[in-house]
Amino acid sequence: MSGAFRIARFFGIDLRVHWSFFFIVLLVGMQGASHGAMGILFTVTLVALLFLCVTLHEFGHALVAQRFGIPVREIVLLPIGGVAVMGRMPEKPRQELLIAIAGPLVNVAILAVLVPVWFVLGGFETSAAVGQILESTRGIRIDASSLRAAAFAMLGFVIGANVMLIAFNMIPAFPLDGGRVFRSILAMRMPHAKATRIAATVGQAAAIVLALVGLSTGQWMLAVIAFFIFMGAGAESAAAQTGTVLATRRVGDAYNKTAITLTLEHRMSHVIEHIMTSYQPDFAVLNRGRLAGVITREDVLKWLAETPSLYDVYVTEAMREEQAVVRVQATMTLDEVTKVMEERQTRVVAVFEGEMYLGLVSAEDIAEAQAVLTFLNRRLAEGAPPPRTAWPMPMREAPRV
């Protein structure tokens, strides 16, 4: 995620913090400053502990996802919480159910550890005294008993925060954990797209209720969170609809069959000329009809930035060799190819029929296909006759050089 930097790495997963997170730390620290050094220490430490709980919550999701073979790229801490960025979403409802519920179960485990400790160390009486503790320590002199009492009170706040995390996340409002649990249960009984549509509708309705409560009570943060829930539910519904549309077509029907191709004898000057005179961003480099590599506009720009004076070197100096190019089979659906792109973090793949190279397809190509298919489906639903030229078009053989 842009704007986030790595602070640690656990279980092969990068833990990143978004730069805006530090505004929360600064804001909370300023609020605590009215109580002197003790107030600053208390509030900043409390925020750190709360986000530690959020981090553990997200690692709960991530580790279960890894257990199912789903790659997890990173966990990002944001001012409104955390997010585990997965290479792809789980395909089976049972997997989604277990991944979604794993986060709240981590918070349950935290409560199972902290609640007994809290009662042993003082319980409600200690937590109720935190205001007096802070008022009595406006200066920088802090005695051991005050620190101990503040620590106990902080423990009570952390317990309350975990209870809130569980209760809030389990609201059946997509895309919260509860919404994903709700969808997974629905998906066990109906098509995934329909389950997503229902869960997203419930999520948006819940978001509207939360927003009204937040605005009527002056809880602006609740209204902001409701906004993100509403938008997230809409995005999930749109993504599911896109996946349904793309699942109806093979990538063998969508790759660019008139693409310009290069050979090992071409030089970088030829690539630059093609980029400047065509709208084609990606070029396959062929050797006797077989794929030798791929060079993209991004590769060319990077190469020019590093070696701006070398135009006559062969294209092999800058291309991605065939071994580094992600392959997909022509029989795969566009939806499946999209998932491969997301998992492998690439925007262009090579389409093969067996071992025969056919062409390249990019994320932009799939987006265009999705737009056309959505329009055609809408027209057909309205009763319009199908187009005269059948789509998909037949696949042709690989170009020869």
3D architecture notes:
With 401 residues, the protein is of the alpha/beta class. It folds into 2 domains: 4-170, no CATH class; 251-381, Roll (CBS-domain). The chain has helices at residues 21-32, 36-67, 93-121, 123-128, 130-135, 144-169, 177-187, 192-217, 220-246, 268-277, 297-306, 334-344, 363-381, and strands at residues 4-10, 13-18, 72-78, 81-86, 261-263, 282-287, 290-296, 320-321, 327-329, 348-353, 356-362. The strands form 3 sheets. The protein has a 4-stranded mixed beta sheet with strand order 1-2-3-4, covered by helices on one side. A 4-stranded mixed beta sheet has the order 5-6-7-8. It has a 3-stranded mixed beta sheet with strand order 9-10-11. Strand 10 (348-353) and strand 11 (356-362) form a beta hairpin. The longest helix is centred in the N-terminal third of the chain and has 32 residues, at 36-67. It is globular, with a radius of gyration of 27 Å. Mean pLDDT is 81; it is low at 126-144 and 393-401.
List the helices and strands and how they pair.
Layout: E1 4-10, E2 13-18, H1 21-32, H2 36-67, E3 72-78, E4 81-86, H3 93-121, H4 123-128, H5 130-135, H6 144-169, H7 177-187, H8 192-217, H9 220-246, E5 261-263, H10 268-277, E6 282-287, E7 290-296, H11 297-306, E8 320-321, E9 327-329, H12 334-344, E10 348-353, E11 356-362, H13 363-381
Helix pairs in contact: 1-2, 2-3, 2-6, 3-6, 3-7, 7-8, 8-9
